[in-house]
From TrEMBL:
Gene: carAd
Entry-linked PROSITE patterns: 2FE2S_FER_1, 2FE2S_FER_2
UniProt xrefs under Pfam families: Fer2
Statement: the UniProt record of this protein carries the keyword Oxidoreductase: yes
UniProt xrefs under SUPFAM superfamilies: 2Fe-2S ferredoxin-like
Name this protein carries in UniProt: Ferredoxin--NAD(P)(+) reductase CarAd
Signal peptide: none
Alphabetized GO MF terms: 2 iron, 2 sulfur cluster binding; ferredoxin-NADP+ reductase activity
Keywords: Oxidoreductase
Known EC number: 1.18.1.2
Naturally occurring in which organism (per UniProt): Hydrogenophaga pseudoflava
Length: 123
């Protein structure tokens, strides 16, 4: 990347950490944050595969840079503003909340799949 990055940028605000960073309209919210060494959104695979960067867009417009896995963001959730920060770029200033697995109390590996299918039935 050029030393003089003249791409138009939008302010991205992370509610939990009250952190704001500028992000270009053609880079993902997560890439923009990491490029500046900022924190706030959990960083995982940066490729749409792990879901740890899940956020809810509270305000602002975004555009998808790639497919968003339904394993991590359901259609219902997408309609409520949830998305993956590594898969979307800002088109206006954005306010977001971190909403991924790491924001929940139980965040270890496979806990989710263990609870996904109720195998004990009461009779
Ligand atoms: S960092 Fe893994 S899905 Fe975004």
């Amino acid at each position: 990347m050029s030393l003089f990055d003249s791409r138009p940028k939008f302010a991205v605000h992370v509610a939990q950490t009250d952190e704001t960073f500028p992000c270009a309209g053609n880079e993902s919210l997560l890439t923009g944050m990491v490029r500046l060494g900022r924190k706030g959104i959990p960083v995982g695979c940066v490729n749409g595969g792990c879901g740890v960067c899940k956020v809810r867009i509270v305000e602002g417009q975004i555009k998808a840079l790639g497919p968003i896995s339904r394993a991590h963001v359901t259609l219902d959730e997408e309609n409520q503003g949830y998305t993956l920060a590594c898969r979307v770029a800002p088109q206006t200033p954005v306010n977001l909340e971190v909403a991924g697995k790491l924001s929940k109390p139980f965040s270890k590996g496979r806990a989710e799949s263990a609870t996904a299918s109720p195998s004990i039935q009461q009779q």
